[in-house]
Task: structure prediction
Amino acid sequence: MAKNSSIEWTHHTFNPWWGCAKVSPGCEHCYAETWARRVGQGVWGARAPRRFFSKKHWDEPFKWNAEAEMTGERRRVFCASMADVFENRSVLNEPRSRLWSIIESTPMLDWLLLTKRPQNIEKMIPWENNWPNNIWLGTTVENEKYAKLRLPFLLKHPARIRFLSCEPLLGQINLRKWLKANIANGMYGIDWVIAGGESGPGARPMLPRWAQSLRDQSIEFNIPFHFKQWGHWVPEEIVTTEQRRRIIDIEGERMVSLGKKEAGRKLDGDIWDGFPVAC
Result:
């Protein structure tokens, strides 16, 4: 949990529990698993326990909501940075129900529910077609394969906002067939696209054209685009001589090992900080 989160696209983070299990290539170098182990929490894997929290922890969103009411400014809450709300384990049913109740009771908070398990959404939410107006529902899409697998499950739900986290971006993705609603086929559209490269030990490079393509598709369909970071690797052409580190060639692109902080978050010289319109 964190008030004033360091994640660029949210104000706060809230975790109803800690722990998860890996399900796809985007999970390979999971930052949450690394952090949990660093602080001595063995909560990763299908058989590992999950870490739960006290009433004081669960009371925090009510404080954030009261502050937002006082200022008249909505706040985004990323839920959950250290877990997956839609993980299918019976021990999570009680805290998940508690979370739904808190979301309904904090209308000044926009809750960003990001999952790699969108196939579980329908059986775990209590709202059917009458979702609270403060839910932004998202799925991780790291490459074309997982776009095709996950988007049909995400886009069937009438949440206020439906968004994609293409981070870590591991390949080219064509989103054009998904970006606008197709109500005749029971599919809503995408309202927001986030993209970013991987950071940390063993980070895999994100090629510039993959991120540029997502930006261009978003512009084409008038959808907000948010470029979060290059991550550990950055294209050689935007690196100064003094910054040079190890260089590798991937599919004709020369990528420099630079580190997240130095690599920054400019794409083609600009900061892309698109956000959808809040309630």
